[in-house]
Amino acid sequence: MKVNEVAKLVGISVRTLHHYDEIGLLIPDQLTESGYRIYSERNLEQLQQILFFRELGFPLKKIKEIVTSPDFNRLEALRLHEQMLLEKKKHIDMLLGTVAKTIQHAKGEVQMSHKEKFQGFDFSSNPYEQEARERWGDKAVDESNAKAKQMKKDGQMEKFQEDMNQLYAKLAELRHTDPASEDAQAAIGEWYRMLGQMGSYSPEAFKGLGQMYVDDQRFTKNIDKFGEGLAVFMRDAMAIYADGLQG
């Protein structure tokens, strides 16, 4: 198949396929004398794998590492996709239930507790652990993981998660105010202390984490579920708070 035929079949742009070729992620098996890319059945199978990984939030660099590895097993990868997508479906179903109940609550048909309003939002796990290791080192991440494991063992994780969701909601209410204001800085100070329960954050690391909330669209998407623009507000408030700690 030619590149425009593949693009039409899959629903992605020709430019995207060209980019995948240029970075060595998906190289067509044939190139005509005129320079046209020709995709084989094997290439289409590779593209399906790539798009599964993309759907699950993997960055292109990581996808390339996985699919070009000599140890890559397509069947094992498909089983992994199935498992991860089922987990994602379970999470989405829970969020849909929260949305449906919130609509009923807004119409006055049912009552909703504060806990129920945030059912399905889960920030206790870290799907970006490798990126965190690259940014802050193994020691900081291992320390955070150990604390999280101990909290689960002690039965404290659910309460911690509930407190975190409530603080997100509180920050969302402040997101249209000045991030340097007294109320905003007090709330972001709570955020700093809450993160401190999971690991040690230097002012520089705390500021860098806030920047990641905006630079990484996966973080932005999750945080902005509490209110559009919350990630940007938190980044700005965290930078101001970190500068104050260093000063």
From TrEMBL:
Superkingdom field: Bacteria
UniProt keyword Transcription regulation present: yes
Record-annotated HTH merR-type domain positions: 1-69
Alphabetical keyword list: Activator, DNA-binding, Transcription, Transcription regulation
Molecular-function GO terms, alphabetical: DNA binding; DNA-binding transcription factor activity
Keyword Transcription recorded: yes
UniProt xrefs under InterPro entries: DNA-bd_dom_put_sf, MerR-type_HTH_dom, MerR_fam, TipA-like_antibiotic-bd, TipAS_dom
Any Pfam family hit: TipAS
Record-given protein name: MerR family transcriptional regulator
Source taxonomy: Bacteria, Bacillati, Bacillota, Bacilli, Bacillales
